[in-house]
Amino acid sequence: MRYVDEFRDPELINKTAAEIRRLADPRRHYRLMEVCGGHTHAIYRFGLKDVLPENIDLIHGPGCPVCVLPMGRIDDGLSMASDSNVIFTAFGDMMRVPGRQGSPLEHKARGMDVRIVYSPADALKIAKANPDRHVMFFAIGFETTAPSTALTLMRAKEQGIRNFSVFCNHVTIIPAIRAILDSPDMRLDGFIGPGHVSTVIGCRPYEWIAKNEWKPIVVSGFEPLDILQSIVMLLRQLQKGESIVENQYKRVVPWEGNHAALRAMTQVFELRPYFEWRGLGFISQSALRINQAYAEWDAEVRFQIPGLRVTDPKAAQCGEVLKGVLKPAQCKLFGKECTPEYPIGALMVSSEGSCAAFYNYEHRKTSALISLGTTA
Amino acid sequence: MNADEDDEVLPGGCHMCLAIPGKIVEIFPDNVNAALIEVAGVRRRVDLGLLEDDRPVIGDWVLIHVGFAMSKICEQDALDQMHTLAMLGEADAAMQEIRGYGTEEEDKNYQSN
What is the pTM of this model? Predict the structure, then answer.
């Protein structure tokens, strides 16, 4: 019963679950995609699938930055740090992601100077503290994180810190959603929109999904009640035959986004013509690179990188899982060769990857939500 | 806060997706973008540069993401957000992140002050 005790208002959860059952047309099968890995994590953690009627399927989207990064980029980043004068810095999330010759953590064990930072600003501080070394920050993340990298680069330029560079792997969420909608084997009815990405980009960029693709989208918070309310809002739109962008997460997400953050991104980055996404392949204009004005701080300009494409282990079916074609447990390696302790695919590394989330929570089905769902 | 004593912080948990509420307790006079925030009794330096259109003042609550304040929120929403993190089993990861801001050199300075 431990999860139930934590809910702010179990009564409201029950009412919302009942409303979902009332709105769901038993003759229809609903496929709703939660774009953000944080939502995937929450959905598994709270066993939300168990409160939903059987004809509502939640499909896990591409919004886990670690999971969609191709292995070749990890190898590229590590190759820069094979020079002993280079300090490799990255968020902790990156440390266990396997490259062809092992993860950053394994490279550290072999003597590479690999340091975890919790902020790109701290990578810059390490550069200031080590003027005779070069500090490379392995930047990763969607629009939530990209503005912080941009501001860090602006500070480096302002302060004239030249022993610092960024290996930019920032990606943008909208082209990934477009690629999924264009995928022929994907049928979706609507989207649970990402929460924290939207604090930066706002809700407007989703309008084409609602208008042109006729898929309703509701930007959602991360609590069980938030996600269930977002599903209610989606079902109401589907029932009325509407398709608009709605904001369930108003307490945090302004409709217009954060202009200062967008300005910082524009000042430092430009769109790459194309970028490879693990599982989704090459997507045009889906990633950011550092622009000419900041070339001096661009690790891809400063270092020779192999730029090799590394195919995922054949037996691993990360791509199919990432696109929602397969459920995590349907992958041949799931829970056998590939576990959160010894991940083969990136979906198993991050707690927001659907494989790790499924592995960590699905077997704990004793979650009291089951009883909540059936007694309501 | 401690919603899941038997849950470890998941290895490789997604720090870059956390949004942590903190209260601004000091803004440095020599740098309007540098502030000291407090989260559950822990104080760390964060950057306010992403809020330059709507500058927060001392006493305001902000959501912090990888060392940068990314939005202003009200106190109630800050408390709600802390509750969300606890429910998601991410309160420990959030505190680990907040404590992790700054470099070793800065840590030494904090201790000596």
Answer: 0.89
